[in-house]
Protein backbone atom coordinates (compact mmCIF):
# COMPACT_ATOMS: atom_id res chain seq x y z
CA UNK A 1 0.00 0.00 0.00
CA UNK A 2 1.34 3.43 -0.91
CA UNK A 3 2.46 5.43 2.12
CA UNK A 4 1.82 9.16 2.24
CA UNK A 5 3.96 11.65 4.11
CA UNK A 6 1.68 14.51 5.04
CA UNK A 7 2.93 18.04 5.64
CA UNK A 8 -0.02 19.99 7.00
CA UNK A 9 -0.44 23.61 8.03
CA UNK A 10 -3.84 24.78 9.21
CA UNK A 11 -6.31 24.17 6.36
CA UNK A 12 -4.00 23.27 3.46
CA UNK A 13 -1.73 20.40 2.75
CA UNK A 14 1.17 19.51 0.56
CA UNK A 15 1.69 15.79 0.12
CA UNK A 16 4.67 13.89 -1.18
CA UNK A 17 4.11 10.35 -2.37
CA UNK A 18 6.74 7.62 -2.32
CA UNK A 19 6.88 7.75 -6.09
CA UNK A 20 8.53 11.16 -5.70
CA UNK A 21 5.63 13.27 -6.90
CA UNK A 22 4.59 16.35 -4.94
CA UNK A 23 0.95 17.39 -4.82
CA UNK A 24 -1.06 20.17 -3.27
CA UNK A 25 -4.74 20.28 -2.36
CA UNK A 26 -7.04 22.14 -0.05
CA UNK A 27 -8.34 20.08 2.81
CA UNK A 28 -11.97 18.94 2.35
CA UNK A 29 -13.44 21.54 4.71
CA UNK A 30 -11.81 24.33 2.69
CA UNK A 31 -12.89 23.35 -0.78
CA UNK A 32 -16.04 25.44 -0.38
CA UNK A 33 -17.82 23.53 -3.14
CA UNK A 34 -14.84 23.25 -5.50
CA UNK A 35 -13.30 20.01 -6.67
CA UNK A 36 -9.68 19.49 -5.60
CA UNK A 37 -7.24 19.33 -8.51
CA UNK A 38 -3.96 17.53 -7.86
CA UNK A 39 -1.00 18.31 -10.08
CA UNK A 40 2.16 16.29 -9.58
CA UNK A 41 5.71 17.66 -9.60
CA UNK A 42 9.01 15.86 -9.20
CA UNK A 43 10.49 18.32 -6.67
CA UNK A 44 9.60 21.27 -4.46
CA UNK A 45 11.52 23.51 -6.85
CA UNK A 46 9.43 22.42 -9.84
CA UNK A 47 6.27 22.68 -7.72
CA UNK A 48 7.20 26.23 -6.73
CA UNK A 49 7.89 27.17 -10.34
CA UNK A 50 4.69 25.61 -11.66
CA UNK A 51 2.44 27.00 -8.94
CA UNK A 52 4.01 30.45 -9.24
CA UNK A 53 3.09 30.54 -12.93
CA UNK A 54 -0.48 29.44 -12.17
CA UNK A 55 -0.70 31.89 -9.26
CA UNK A 56 0.21 34.81 -11.50
CA UNK A 57 -2.88 33.96 -13.56
CA UNK A 58 -5.10 34.09 -10.47
CA UNK A 59 -5.25 30.41 -9.46
CA UNK A 60 -5.94 30.73 -5.74
CA UNK A 61 -4.94 27.15 -4.93
CA UNK A 62 -1.58 27.76 -6.60
CA UNK A 63 -1.17 30.95 -4.53
CA UNK A 64 -1.75 28.95 -1.35
CA UNK A 65 0.67 26.26 -2.51
CA UNK A 66 3.42 28.83 -3.12
CA UNK A 67 2.65 30.46 0.23
CA UNK A 68 2.98 27.20 2.10
CA UNK A 69 6.28 26.34 0.42
CA UNK A 70 7.70 29.68 1.58
CA UNK A 71 6.16 29.40 5.03
CA UNK A 72 7.39 25.86 5.62
CA UNK A 73 10.72 26.30 3.88
CA UNK A 74 10.08 23.32 1.60
CA UNK A 75 13.08 23.24 -0.73
CA UNK A 76 13.69 26.95 -0.13
CA UNK A 77 14.66 29.10 2.83
CA UNK A 78 11.62 29.80 5.01
CA UNK A 79 10.24 33.26 4.23
CA UNK A 80 7.08 34.12 6.23
CA UNK A 81 6.92 37.61 4.73
CA UNK A 82 6.81 36.20 1.20
CA UNK A 83 4.31 33.57 2.35
CA UNK A 84 2.02 36.27 3.75
CA UNK A 85 1.99 38.10 0.41
CA UNK A 86 0.96 34.97 -1.48
CA UNK A 87 -1.71 34.18 1.10
CA UNK A 88 -2.93 37.76 0.70
CA UNK A 89 -3.27 37.31 -3.08
CA UNK A 90 -5.43 34.22 -2.61
CA UNK A 91 -7.34 35.77 0.29
CA UNK A 92 -8.17 38.86 -1.74
CA UNK A 93 -9.52 36.57 -4.47
CA UNK A 94 -11.84 34.99 -1.91
CA UNK A 95 -10.02 31.80 -0.91
CA UNK A 96 -11.27 30.90 2.59
CA UNK A 97 -8.22 28.87 3.60
CA UNK A 98 -5.92 31.75 2.62
CA UNK A 99 -8.10 34.22 4.51
CA UNK A 100 -7.84 32.01 7.59
CA UNK A 101 -4.09 31.64 7.25
CA UNK A 102 -3.52 35.36 6.71
CA UNK A 103 -5.65 36.12 9.77
CA UNK A 104 -3.56 33.70 11.81
CA UNK A 105 -0.35 35.37 10.63
CA UNK A 106 -1.69 38.77 11.71
CA UNK A 107 -2.69 37.27 15.05
CA UNK A 108 0.79 35.82 15.63
CA UNK A 109 2.83 38.54 13.94
CA UNK A 110 4.29 35.99 11.53
CA UNK A 111 5.53 37.57 8.31
CA UNK A 112 3.50 40.70 9.11
CA UNK A 113 3.25 43.10 12.02
CA UNK A 114 0.86 41.75 14.68
CA UNK A 115 -2.56 43.32 14.23
CA UNK A 116 -5.65 41.95 15.97
CA UNK A 117 -8.00 44.16 13.96
CA UNK A 118 -6.67 42.77 10.68
CA UNK A 119 -6.82 39.25 12.09
CA UNK A 120 -10.51 39.74 12.90
CA UNK A 121 -11.18 41.20 9.45
CA UNK A 122 -9.77 38.14 7.67
CA UNK A 123 -11.21 35.62 10.14
CA UNK A 124 -14.61 37.18 9.48
CA UNK A 125 -14.26 36.78 5.71
CA UNK A 126 -13.34 33.10 6.10
CA UNK A 127 -16.00 32.53 8.77
CA UNK A 128 -18.71 33.95 6.53
CA UNK A 129 -17.72 31.32 3.95
CA UNK A 130 -18.39 28.64 6.54
CA UNK A 131 -14.86 27.73 7.62
CA UNK A 132 -15.25 26.25 11.14
CA UNK A 133 -11.70 27.09 12.24
CA UNK A 134 -12.26 30.74 11.35
CA UNK A 135 -15.63 30.77 13.10
CA UNK A 136 -13.96 29.36 16.20
CA UNK A 137 -11.17 31.94 16.16
CA UNK A 138 -13.63 34.76 15.57
CA UNK A 139 -15.65 33.54 18.55
CA UNK A 140 -12.53 33.62 20.72
CA UNK A 141 -11.71 37.16 19.60
CA UNK A 142 -15.20 38.33 20.55
CA UNK A 143 -14.93 36.45 23.85
CA UNK A 144 -11.63 38.12 24.78
CA UNK A 145 -12.22 41.46 23.06
CA UNK A 146 -9.06 41.21 20.93
CA UNK A 147 -9.29 43.38 17.82
CA UNK A 148 -13.02 43.84 18.32
CA UNK A 149 -15.46 45.12 20.96
CA UNK A 150 -15.89 42.35 23.54
CA UNK A 151 -19.23 40.57 23.19
CA UNK A 152 -20.28 37.26 24.72
CA UNK A 153 -23.33 37.35 22.47
CA UNK A 154 -21.20 37.52 19.31
CA UNK A 155 -18.79 34.97 20.75
CA UNK A 156 -21.67 32.57 21.31
CA UNK A 157 -22.98 33.16 17.77
CA UNK A 158 -19.69 32.24 16.07
CA UNK A 159 -18.70 29.47 18.46
CA UNK A 160 -22.09 27.83 17.95
CA UNK A 161 -21.66 28.02 14.17
CA UNK A 162 -18.35 26.18 14.43
CA UNK A 163 -19.76 23.78 17.01
CA UNK A 164 -22.60 22.83 14.68
CA UNK A 165 -19.97 21.83 12.12
CA UNK A 166 -18.39 19.46 14.62
CA UNK A 167 -15.39 21.48 15.79
CA UNK A 168 -14.60 20.03 19.27
CA UNK A 169 -12.82 23.14 20.57
CA UNK A 170 -15.80 25.28 19.58
CA UNK A 171 -18.19 22.79 21.17
CA UNK A 172 -16.21 23.03 24.42
CA UNK A 173 -16.03 26.83 24.42
CA UNK A 174 -19.71 27.21 23.50
CA UNK A 175 -20.50 24.84 26.37
CA UNK A 176 -18.56 27.09 28.75
CA UNK A 177 -20.67 30.06 27.64
CA UNK A 178 -23.90 28.17 28.38
CA UNK A 179 -22.54 26.93 31.70
CA UNK A 180 -21.46 30.41 32.84
CA UNK A 181 -24.51 32.28 31.47
CA UNK A 182 -22.32 34.34 29.13
CA UNK A 183 -24.14 35.64 26.08
CA UNK A 184 -27.49 34.35 27.34
CA UNK A 185 -29.20 32.61 30.27
CA UNK A 186 -27.51 29.64 31.91
CA UNK A 187 -28.40 26.36 30.22
CA UNK A 188 -26.67 23.41 31.86
CA UNK A 189 -28.40 20.88 29.63
CA UNK A 190 -27.13 22.57 26.49
CA UNK A 191 -23.69 22.92 28.09
CA UNK A 192 -23.63 19.21 28.93
CA UNK A 193 -24.75 18.27 25.41
CA UNK A 194 -21.95 20.33 23.88
CA UNK A 195 -19.35 19.03 26.32
CA UNK A 196 -20.42 15.48 25.45
CA UNK A 197 -19.99 16.11 21.73
CA UNK A 198 -16.48 17.49 22.27
CA UNK A 199 -15.59 14.87 24.88
CA UNK A 200 -16.47 12.06 22.50
CA UNK A 201 -13.99 13.58 20.05
CA UNK A 202 -11.24 13.43 22.67
CA UNK A 203 -11.24 17.02 23.97
CA UNK A 204 -9.94 16.60 27.52
CA UNK A 205 -11.14 20.01 28.72
CA UNK A 206 -14.67 19.02 27.70
CA UNK A 207 -14.22 15.64 29.40
CA UNK A 208 -13.24 17.46 32.60
CA UNK A 209 -16.21 19.84 32.44
CA UNK A 210 -18.53 16.90 31.84
CA UNK A 211 -17.08 15.12 34.87
CA UNK A 212 -17.60 18.23 37.00
CA UNK A 213 -21.22 18.55 35.94
CA UNK A 214 -21.94 14.91 36.76
CA UNK A 215 -20.09 15.17 40.08
CA UNK A 216 -21.86 18.34 41.23
CA UNK A 217 -25.31 17.79 39.66
CA UNK A 218 -26.39 21.16 41.11
CA UNK A 219 -27.87 20.18 44.47
CA UNK A 220 -29.06 16.76 43.40
CA UNK A 221 -27.40 13.43 44.12
CA UNK A 222 -24.11 13.33 42.25
CA UNK A 223 -24.03 10.99 39.28
CA UNK A 224 -20.76 9.39 40.30
CA UNK A 225 -20.28 6.63 37.75
CA UNK A 226 -20.14 8.87 34.65
CA UNK A 227 -18.29 11.53 36.66
CA UNK A 228 -15.51 9.09 37.53
CA UNK A 229 -15.47 7.74 34.00
CA UNK A 230 -14.90 11.15 32.45
CA UNK A 231 -12.40 12.19 35.15
CA UNK A 232 -10.37 9.05 34.42
CA UNK A 233 -10.54 9.55 30.67
CA UNK A 234 -9.32 13.14 30.89
CA UNK A 235 -6.66 12.27 33.47
CA UNK A 236 -5.35 9.38 31.41
CA UNK A 237 -4.96 11.77 28.48
CA UNK A 238 -2.77 14.21 30.40
CA UNK A 239 -5.32 16.79 31.58
CA UNK A 240 -3.50 18.05 34.65
CA UNK A 241 -6.59 19.52 36.35
CA UNK A 242 -8.46 16.24 35.87
CA UNK A 243 -5.55 14.37 37.43
CA UNK A 244 -5.67 16.63 40.49
CA UNK A 245 -9.46 16.53 40.89
CA UNK A 246 -9.57 12.75 40.43
CA UNK A 247 -6.93 12.43 43.15
CA UNK A 248 -9.04 14.53 45.52
CA UNK A 249 -12.06 12.28 44.90
CA UNK A 250 -9.99 9.23 45.83
CA UNK A 251 -8.45 11.03 48.81
CA UNK A 252 -11.79 12.19 50.24
CA UNK A 253 -13.88 9.20 49.26
CA UNK A 254 -16.29 11.51 47.45
CA UNK A 255 -17.93 9.86 44.45
CA UNK A 256 -15.40 7.02 44.76
CA UNK A 257 -14.24 4.53 47.36
CA UNK A 258 -11.53 6.13 49.46
CA UNK A 259 -8.22 5.00 47.98
CA UNK A 260 -5.16 6.85 49.30
CA UNK A 261 -2.55 4.97 47.23
CA UNK A 262 -4.46 5.77 44.05
CA UNK A 263 -4.91 9.38 45.17
CA UNK A 264 -1.16 9.54 45.70
CA UNK A 265 -0.48 8.30 42.16
CA UNK A 266 -2.63 10.99 40.53
CA UNK A 267 -1.36 13.74 42.83
CA UNK A 268 2.19 12.74 41.97
CA UNK A 269 1.48 12.92 38.23
CA UNK A 270 -0.12 16.34 38.47
CA UNK A 271 2.54 17.61 40.88
CA UNK A 272 5.34 16.44 38.59
CA UNK A 273 3.81 18.59 35.84
CA UNK A 274 3.76 21.69 38.05
CA UNK A 275 0.18 21.78 39.37
CA UNK A 276 0.49 23.90 42.54
CA UNK A 277 -2.55 22.54 44.40
CA UNK A 278 -1.50 18.97 43.62
CA UNK A 279 1.98 19.74 44.96
CA UNK A 280 0.49 21.19 48.15
CA UNK A 281 -1.82 18.19 48.64
CA UNK A 282 1.04 15.79 47.93
CA UNK A 283 3.08 17.55 50.60
CA UNK A 284 0.30 16.89 53.11
CA UNK A 285 0.20 13.21 52.16
CA UNK A 286 3.91 12.84 52.92
CA UNK A 287 3.75 15.01 56.03
CA UNK A 288 0.96 12.98 57.63
CA UNK A 289 1.73 9.56 56.13
CA UNK A 290 -1.49 9.27 54.12
CA UNK A 291 -1.12 6.34 51.74
CA UNK A 292 2.64 6.59 51.95
CA UNK A 293 5.39 6.40 54.56
CA UNK A 294 5.86 9.69 56.42
CA UNK A 295 8.70 11.72 54.90
CA UNK A 296 9.13 15.26 56.21
CA UNK A 297 11.88 16.18 53.74
CA UNK A 298 9.77 15.19 50.73
CA UNK A 299 6.77 16.92 52.31
CA UNK A 300 8.75 20.15 52.64
CA UNK A 301 10.04 19.84 49.08
CA UNK A 302 6.53 19.69 47.61
CA UNK A 303 5.25 22.43 49.93
CA UNK A 304 8.06 24.76 48.82
CA UNK A 305 7.45 23.95 45.15
CA UNK A 306 3.73 24.57 45.60
CA UNK A 307 4.42 27.96 47.17
CA UNK A 308 6.83 28.81 44.35
CA UNK A 309 4.01 28.04 41.90
CA UNK A 310 1.49 30.25 43.69
CA UNK A 311 0.05 28.09 46.49
CA UNK A 312 -0.11 29.09 50.15
CA UNK A 313 3.02 29.14 52.32
CA UNK A 314 4.25 25.83 53.74
CA UNK A 315 3.04 24.82 57.19
CA UNK A 316 5.23 26.58 59.78
CA UNK A 317 5.66 23.35 61.75
CA UNK A 318 6.94 21.66 58.61
CA UNK A 319 9.46 24.40 57.84
CA UNK A 320 10.78 24.44 61.42
CA UNK A 321 10.76 20.65 61.82
CA UNK A 322 13.95 19.78 63.72
CA UNK A 323 14.11 16.40 61.99
CA UNK A 324 15.10 18.25 58.82
CA UNK A 325 18.77 19.18 59.09
CA UNK A 326 20.40 22.39 57.88
CA UNK A 327 22.18 20.34 55.24
CA UNK A 328 18.87 18.97 53.97
CA UNK A 329 17.38 22.48 53.93
CA UNK A 330 20.30 23.69 51.82
CA UNK A 331 19.97 20.73 49.45
CA UNK A 332 16.23 21.35 49.10
CA UNK A 333 16.77 25.02 48.31
CA UNK A 334 19.07 24.10 45.43
CA UNK A 335 16.67 21.40 44.24
CA UNK A 336 13.77 23.85 44.21
CA UNK A 337 15.80 26.36 42.18
CA UNK A 338 16.63 23.75 39.52
CA UNK A 339 13.29 21.94 39.47
CA UNK A 340 11.49 21.71 36.12
CA UNK A 341 8.07 20.19 35.35
CA UNK A 342 8.11 16.72 33.82
CA UNK A 343 6.14 15.57 30.84
CA UNK A 344 3.55 13.07 31.99
CA UNK A 345 3.34 9.61 30.43
CA UNK A 346 -0.39 9.69 31.18
CA UNK A 347 -0.96 6.03 31.95
CA UNK A 348 -3.83 4.37 33.76
CA UNK A 349 -4.04 4.24 37.54
Main attributes of the structure:
single chain; 349 residues; mainly alpha; Serine Threonine Protein Phosphatase 5, Tetratricopeptide repeat; 60% helix; globular
Task: Walk me through this protein's architecture.
By secondary structure, the chain is mostly helical. Among the domains are: 1-108, Tetratricopeptide repeat domain (Serine Threonine Protein Phosphatase 5, Tetratricopeptide repeat, Alpha Horseshoe), CATH 1.25.40.10; 241-349, Alpha Horseshoe (Serine Threonine Protein Phosphatase 5, Tetratricopeptide repeat), CATH 1.25.40. The protein is 60% helix and 5% strand. It is built from 17 helices and three strands. It has a three-stranded antiparallel β-sheet, with helices on one face. α8 (168-179) packs antiparallel against α9, α14 (276-288) runs antiparallel to α15 (296-308) and α15 (296-308) packs parallel to α17. InterPro entries: Sel1-like, Sel1_AlgK, TPR-like_helical_dom_sf. It comes from Undibacterium piscinae. It holds the Pfam family Sel1.
User: Which assembly state applies to the chains in this document?
Assistant: single chain
Question: If you compute it from the alpha carbons, what radius of gyration comes out, rounded to the nearest whole angstrom?
Answer: 26 Å
Q: What would CATH call the homologous superfamily of the domain at 241-349?
A: Tetratricopeptide repeat domain
Quick one: biggest sheet? Answer: 3 strands, antiparallel
Outline, from the CA principal axes? globular
What are the secondary-structure elements, in order, as H or E? EEEHHHHHHHHHHHHHHHHH
Number of helices: 17
- What class do helices, strands and sheet pairing give? mainly alpha
Strand order of the largest sheet: 1-2-3
Q: How many angstroms separate the termini?
A: 38 Å
Amino acid sequence: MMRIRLIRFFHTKIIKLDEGKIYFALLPQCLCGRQARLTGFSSYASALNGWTQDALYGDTRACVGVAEIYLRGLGVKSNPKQAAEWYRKAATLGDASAQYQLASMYQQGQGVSPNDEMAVEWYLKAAEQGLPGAQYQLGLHYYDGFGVTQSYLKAAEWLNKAAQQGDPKAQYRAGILYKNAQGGPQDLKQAKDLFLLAANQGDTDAQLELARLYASNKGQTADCEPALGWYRKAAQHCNINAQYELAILYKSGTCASKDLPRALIWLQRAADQGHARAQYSLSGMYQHGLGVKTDQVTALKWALLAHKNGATKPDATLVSNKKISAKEHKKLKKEIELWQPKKSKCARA
